[in-house]
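Give me the fold.
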Amino acid sequence: MDKLIIKGNSQISGSVNVHGSKNAALPIIVSSLLSDKSLKLLNVPNVVDVSNLIKLLKNYGVKILHNKNTVNINPKKIKNLSADYDVVRKMRASILILGPLLSRFGEAKISLPGGCAIGTRPIDIHLDGLSKLGASFEIQNGFVVGNVKSQLIGNKINLPFPSVGATENILMASVLAKGETKISNAAREPEIEDLSNCLIKMGAKIEGHGSKTIYVQGVTNLKKAQHKIISDRIVAGTYIIAALILNSKLEIKNFNTEYLKSLINILKKMGANLNVNNNSIRVLKGPKLKSTNLSTSPYPGFPTDLQAQLMSLMCISNGKSKIKETIFENRFMHVPELNRLGAHITVEKDTATIIGNQIFKGAQVMASDLRASISLVLAAMNANGQTTINRVYHLDRGYENIEKTLGSLGVEIKRKKN
């Protein structure tokens, strides 16, 4: 497994372009299964999760040409309706193939998915919603097996929690369902909007995406389409925090700043010097930041995917901060590793207390999941001495060539293969 070696006390400068959104690209690539017509996608990030999903779809007989950040998908001849464990175990997003396959073919079989160890993330909400559309499910030898008697039928579905994945799965399944589907308490994330916009280009009839209630009027078939993936708001937020943790000037470009309002508001409350435009943010040097308290929550609240990164910044800010994690129960796995680097963080149930004014010191640490990994990178960039971060394959799931990007900005960072 690869590891990153980072020399601390870095200074960065210049600008960085934000690449395409992983969390938008994955369901949009899956949505191609709904149609027998081709789909061309632009601004697709070159990350491991995307590569694994493309491998999964190829197992189904989907023809895919992946050239840099462009993906051409031809799903006309699908030959296999069972998703293999070896691919599925690597990513939770693979559960999203259930809705499209059930909708188009009336059957699907997928191994129970894997992914980051940050919480149970049960698929019950997915299965319950799809069941309301007329699908039936069994668990057989570690596989979810779904069937539809004739055709999915539109229905009113009220989600118990605004789950992003369940909203995406039900949304895709309902596109070809007979009649109207109403999804209440739907997730409102920008990635849901992007998926909906792509489906509309494919011929779907969707209204209300981006709100708590989504209406889908079923259609009989879809058409050829082209779509550009939105930029990754979590990656953008990561680079903003990177500049602040090093008190450096940096311009973060090519993303919709409206999608990061919750982070921007928190950082300004902490005293960050930010120049915010529609599609870019310029981080300027400023005085030491101060502490704050926050809770993660579904969009438009503070994203759980930026919690670990912000925690690294809080460690060197003035005062005592608190973060309450309301989305995933195991999402403080980075805390022991940050403490190894010199942080002073305690966790009680769903709340982490961060004592500020700490000085990070280089050490050997272990990455546990995607966002935990990048929080360690941020701390290491600020630390006195050298830090080695082991098991960085997690990072490659969501960041394109992180060492190359940070290296171009001035960080002394190199990847070493074990």
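The chain has two domains: 2-19+231-417, 22-228.
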